[in-house]
């Protein structure tokens, strides 16, 4: 009952956004203007907080190069290109995102990271990567994306399809907090309004369960907390899985 009361209070505070959503105005404005602007700002903050973890996470990317020595990467939900700096020199990257409105920030990131070869940018959802041939990439990268895809299991199924045998899936995602914690209590309160305001981002997904149930041959996963005070997205999972 207390969760419903607090949800109602938060909805009242966000009433203008709910009204714009009802009128069909908020979603296109969010996709084209607000979310690209917000994502660039929050990515910069998140990047500072997770830099060491990302350096450690992507350290073994070269180990998954093909026998020819070539390393082909596919990034799902590239957004502003925050991960480019961690990719090995000379690797080939195919970028995908369901939202094509990140051009300016993405180009800035590409210009800063000339050590990477950018093959193409595809407007595609994580659940539908039909333009990417099966077994064609050595590694798939997905950070802060599985919170907002329509189907986590569908996305992981596509990841397994496009990966070659022995390829790896790298992830860093915010997830639901422990159910007995105050963090989870506030996640439940914020969830409906947060999802509306931030383009479908879900606060209470237990993504580690989807990864454990997917058909990976090896899963390296750990739970961490990212210092993002006054936000409901502090609990994270990080790691990689091998096909």
TrEMBL record:
Keyword tags: Methyltransferase, Transferase
Q: Which GO terms describe its molecular function?
A: S-adenosylmethionine-dependent methyltransferase activity
Task: Give me any GO biological process, just one.
Answer: methylation
Q: Which residues form the Methyltransferase type domain?
A: 74-171
* InterPro entries associated with the record: Methyltransf_11, SAM-dependent_MTases_sf, Thiol_S-MT
**UniProt keyword Transferase, yes or no:** yes
Q: Name one Pfam family in it.
A: Methyltransf_11
Please give the PANTHER family that the UniProt record associates with this protein: METHYLTRANSFERASE LIKE 7A, METHYLTRANSFERASE LIKE 7B
Name of the protein this chain belongs to: Methyltransferase-like 7A
> Species name for this entry?
Phalacrocorax carbo (Great cormorant)
């Amino acid at each position: 009952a207390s969760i419903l009361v607090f949800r109602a209070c938060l909805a009242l505070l966000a009433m203008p956004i709910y009204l714009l959503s009802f009128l069909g105005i908020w979603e296109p404005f969010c996709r084209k203007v607000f979310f690209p602007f917000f994502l660039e700002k929050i990515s910069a903050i998140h990047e500072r907080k997770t830099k060491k973890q990302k350096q450690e996470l992507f350290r073994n990317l070269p180990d998954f190069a093909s026998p020819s020595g070539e390393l082909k990467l596919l990034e799902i939900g590239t957004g502003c290109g925050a991960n480019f700096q961690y990719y090995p020199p000379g690797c080939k990257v195919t970028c995908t995102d369901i939202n094509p409105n990140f051009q300016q920030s993405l180009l800035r990131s590409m210009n800063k990271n000339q050590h990477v070869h950018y093959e193409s940018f595809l407007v595609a959802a994580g659940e539908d990567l039909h333009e990417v041939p099966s077994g064609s990439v050595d590694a798939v990268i997905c950070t802060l994306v599985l919170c907002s895809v329509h189907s986590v299991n569908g996305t992981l199924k596509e990841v397994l399809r496009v990966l070659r045998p022995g390829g790896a899936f790298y992830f860093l995602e915010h997830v639901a907090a422990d159910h007995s914690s105050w963090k989870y209590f506030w996640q439940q309160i914020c969830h409906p309004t947060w999802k509306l305001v931030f383009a479908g981002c879900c606060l209470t997904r237990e993504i580690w369960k989807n990864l454990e149930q997917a058909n990976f041959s090896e899963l390296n996963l750990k739970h961490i907390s990212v210092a993002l005070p006054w936000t409901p997205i502090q609990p994270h999972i990080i790691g990689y899985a091998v096909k």
